[in-house]
Each structure stands twice: as structure tokens, then as C-alpha cells.
């Protein structure tokens, strides 16, 4: 069976420590007949020596531009702006098919260079995504909400390990009554992660999914200390929290909005219309007496780079034997590319 040469590029963003294939999975791929080249990276959470130890070749940062023609360049986030023409097959999250800012330029680079994009977001089986970062997004999103609620998140956030995060979740619970925390979208990937973090934190967790919001019981919703919104929402519908709720007395004080649907028509927390950042993670609403604080960070998985990389790699690895034939989920992703690039 044919095995393409996998080229793991260095991420362009200086804050991005994740990697799509971790050393343990690179070892499995090499045993299965793949050649794996890993670029040097100043930020990656796994050291280059860990890849060398399992038999990967190494290459300088950004040298994928000169990779052999058949190599498949694998990354997570956007490509650097150079070169102008893309000749290789690239696997990454391009965010290029929904009219996003800069999307047309990216597609034009592929068109000009004759390259091919196999966008990870569009790797699907029976229409369902098979590689995603949702679990750890929910985990860290819920964890930050709890820490903020406990007065333990005063300033900036940055990449951390799960062990450190869990230690903070456990140490800050001592001597407190368990907070009432509600996860909506609890059966999904991020909802499952959120539930796990809240459990580690010692919260009393309520889990709602679709059936529980058909007739929204807003008083019950507002009678929680913490809300973590993990709902995939495509159409406008009755908001979970309204402007009117902001001024009124309520138990709810902290919201982790994992969806970050802040500018979408389908925003279920429409009082908030902006994301928050690692530098300024919290936005404050409501009155002095009845504040409501929201964390809506749109790159949550990068805050747990090791765990996010491990789970991503575990999902991607088993798909790679089908890559050479563009079979299975690769065919689905390629179809999206062909629809957009002729
Ligand atoms: N902030 C970040 O860094 C980050 C990272 C990854 C994903 N996300 C976002 O998180 C969201 C969730 O992603 P996911 O991978 O967990 O999705 P998912 O499809 O695994 O789960 C979504 C869940 O929402 C439920 N749901 C849908 N409509 C509902 C409703 N009206 N009421 C209650 N539940 C409802 C679904 O049944 C499902 O269980 C998406 O918007 C995604 O883009 C954000």
C-alpha cells in the first residue's frame, strides 16, 4: 500500500504550541511504512529530539516550501503568507469555505500553484467531523470559568499543562460549597470536556442538551452559578440569557462561552458580541450589584497544547493509511476543495 511522505511543518503563530502528529503516533506511522519529516519549531510542545528518537527526519523551520512534490504538508493553523503559490498537498484548518476574511486569497494561492487543500474541518464520515479539538476546548473553557468564579483568574492566560490546571481546580475548591454549574450542549465533544473539568473542580454539574432546551426554563438556567455554553447553533432561537436578565437578581455570575458565536445570528448569548483574548480573558456585564462575567476565548485548545495535540493526533493517525488514495474522509474533504477551486 502506498504511504505518502508526511511533512510536519512548524506553526507560523508564535503562540501556537500544538502539533498535528505527536511523537508516539509518528513512531506508529513509521512502523507502518510512512516517512515522516518534522520541521524545527521554537514553540512546539514536543521537542524535536522526541521525533528523532522514533525515526523521523528533521528539516529547518518553513522548509516545506521546498519539500519533495509528493510530500503532504501537515499543520494545524494558517500557512505563512509566503510563498504566493502553493504547490503541495496541505492538511490543516484553512477556514476557507465560508467566506471568511482572507479565504479567497488562500484558495487563489492553491489555484495558482496547482496544490491541493485537504481541510481537517471537512474530514467527515457520514457527514460527521472525525478530527476536532472540541473536548479540550470545553475542558479548558469550563476550567477558566470556574477559576474566574472563584476569584482565581485575575489576569492573562497562556498555554498550560492539564496537571497544573487540575491542581488549581482542586486546590481552589477547598473550603467552598460546590458551585452549581450548567453545561448546555453537554452531550457533544466540548460539553463532555466541560463536564469533566467541572467534575474535577468539585462543582455540582447539571447537563442539558437538545431535549432540555426545547422549552427553555430560564429561571432554572439562571439558578446556576456558572454556565458553560457548548451548543452548536446554526439558526437564531430563543437566547439562553437576555439583556433583561443582566440587570435582574440571579444566581448566575460566570459564563464560559465555548461556542464564541458572538457575531453570529445564532448567538445564544446575544448580550455579548465580542470574543475575549488570552490577554483580557473576561468581559463584564450587568450592574455593580448583579455582575455577569463572560469568557469567550476562540482559541481555547491552544491553552492545553499537549493534551490537544495528543487527542488530535489520535484521531488523525488512523485516517492516514487512506490518504494516498484520497479515500474515506479524505474524499469528502477533497470534494469541498474541488467545489471551491477549479
Ligand atoms: N472556543 C474554542 O476555542 C472552540 C474550539 C473548538 C470548538 N468550539 C466551538 O464549540 C462549539 C461546540 O463544538 P463541539 O465540537 O462540542 O460540537 P458537538 O457537535 O460535538 O456538540 C454540540 C452539542 O450541542 C447540542 N445542541 C445543539 N443545539 C442545542 C440546543 N438548542 N440546546 C441544547 N443543546 C444543543 C448537540 O446536541 C450536541 O450535543 C462549536 O460552536 C465549535 O465551533 C470552540
Automatic annotation (TrEMBL):
Residue ranges annotated for the Alanine dehydrogenase/pyridine nucleotide transhydrogenase N-terminal domain, each copy included: 7-140
Origin superkingdom: Bacteria
GO molecular function: saccharopine dehydrogenase (NAD+, L-lysine-forming) activity
PANTHER family according to UniProt: SACCHAROPINE DEHYDROGENASE, SACCHAROPINE DEHYDROGENASE [NAD(+), L-LYSINE-FORMING]
Assigned protein family: Belongs to the AlaDH/PNT family.
SUPFAM superfamilies for the chain: Formate/glycerate dehydrogenase catalytic domain-like, NAD(P)-binding Rossmann-fold domains
Annotated positions binding NAD(+): 188-189, 209, 213, 258, 297-300
Keyword terms, alphabetized: NAD, Oxidoreductase
This protein's name: Saccharopine dehydrogenase (NAD+, L-lysine forming)
Gene Ontology cellular-component terms listed: cytoplasm
Amino acid at each position: 500500500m502506498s504511504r505518502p511522505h508526511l511533512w510536519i511543518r512548524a506553526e507560523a503563530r508564535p503562540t501556537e504550541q500544538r502539533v498535528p502528529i505527536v511523537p508516539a503516533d509518528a513512531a506508529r506511522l513509521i512502523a507502518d511504512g510512512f516517512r515522516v519529516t518534522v520541521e524545527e519549531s521554537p514553540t512546539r510542545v514536543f521537542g524535536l529530539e522526541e521525533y528523532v528518537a522514533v525515526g523521523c527526519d528533521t528539516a529547518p523551520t518553513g522548509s516545506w516550501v521546498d519539500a519533495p512534490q509528493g510530500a503532504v504538508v501537515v499543520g494545524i493553523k494558517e500557512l505563512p503568507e509566503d510563498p504566493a503559490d502553493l504547490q503541495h498537498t496541505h492538511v490543516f484548518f484553512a477556514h476557507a469555505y465560508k467566506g471568511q476574511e482572507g479565504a479567497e486569497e488562500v484558495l487563489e494561492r492553491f489555484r495558482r500553484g496547482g496544490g491541493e487543500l485537504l481541510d481537517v474541518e471537512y474530514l467527515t464520515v457520514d457527514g460527521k467531523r472525525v478530527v476536532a479539538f472540541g473536548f479540550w476546548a470545553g475542558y479548558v473553557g469550563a476550567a477558566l470559568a470556574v477559576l474566574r468564579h472563584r476569584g482565581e483568574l485575575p489576569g492573562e492566560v497562556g498555554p498550560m499543562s492539564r496537571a497544573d490546571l487540575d491542581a488549581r481546580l482542586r486546590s481552589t475548591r477547598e473550603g467552598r460549597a460546590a458551585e452549581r454549574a450548567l453545561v448546555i450542549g453537554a452531550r457533544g465533544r466540548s460539553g463532555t470536556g466541560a463536564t469533566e473539568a467541572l467534575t474535577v473542580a468539585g462543582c455540582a454539574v447539571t447537563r442539558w442538551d437538545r431535549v432540555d432546551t426545547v422549552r427553555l426554563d430560564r429561571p432554572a438556567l439562571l439558578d446556576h452559578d456558572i454556565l458553560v455554553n457548548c451548543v452548536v447553533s446554526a439558526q437564531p432561537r430563543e437566547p439562553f440569557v437576555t439583556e433583561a436578565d443582566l440587570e435582574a437578581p440571579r444566581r448566575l455570575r460566570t459564563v464560559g462561552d465555548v461556542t464564541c458565536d458572538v457575531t453570529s445570528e445564532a448567538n445564544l448569548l446575544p448580550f455579548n458580541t465580542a470574543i475575549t483574548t488570552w490577554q483580557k480573558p473576561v468581559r463584564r456585564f450587568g450592574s455593580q450589584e448583579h455582575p455577569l462575567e463572560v469568557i469567550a476565548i476562540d482559541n481555547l485548545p491552544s491553552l492545553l497544547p499537549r493534551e490537544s495535540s495528543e487527542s488530535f493526533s489520535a484521531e488523525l493517525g488512523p485516517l492516514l493509511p487512506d490518504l494516498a488514495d484520497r479515500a474515506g474522509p479524505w474524499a469528502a474533504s477533497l470534494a469541498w476543495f474541488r467545489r471551491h477551486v477549479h
